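Now for a specimen:

…
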Amino acid sequence: MPSRTVQDAIALLKADHRKVEGLFAKFEKAKDSRTKQALAQEICTELTVHTIIEEEIFYPACEGAVEEDLHDEAYVEHDGAKVLVAELAQGGPDDEFYDAKMTVLSEQIKHHVKEEEKPGDGYFAQAPQGRARHGRAGRTARGAQTGTAGADQAERPAAAGNAQLHRPQDGAGHPGRVGGIAMRSGCLWLLGVPIPIIILLWLITGHA
């Protein structure tokens, strides 16, 4: 996993962060229900795609290099956000607590972004600069090449547009991952992620 590839991937994820921050700012200023509904749907879609990219490709590639507590907390923070994303996507501006839920989601994402982008010891700063070859990270990369995730990882279905909340656990009690890079990239393609970005994220998992 060359350093340039890692930095390019991180730049893409940071660009996603900035885009979502801008959407949250627009929602906060929106006055009519129609505008709020459109912005909320865009926010939910952006967060769903971003979550899939991180959970199915970026995080597994960083496993074993990023501090374990920080790595696990990233998944838990995602799970908390998924609850609100699901409720907002299925609801509307006239629903009770709709604006409050969006505010709380915005605050959760701000905290998550801060933990990822923190200089020195944030998640991105700890991302490996060389191809991971040990622990579950190495097995994930090898499993992706053969279409399996390794005997110690539970597979789960990837549904386009639906980042699942409760992930299956592997034998060691860690969240399961999708088995096979083809399933991951197919899911991203169905969600409209540009092919060049999918190819770049392929490289992160050790396919360079």
Notes: The helical segments are 3-29, 33-62, 68-90, 98-117, 135-146, 181-190, 195-207. Confidence is low (pLDDT under 50) at residues 130-186. The chain is about 65% helix and 0% strand. The CA atoms of residues 132 and 138 lie 6 Å apart.
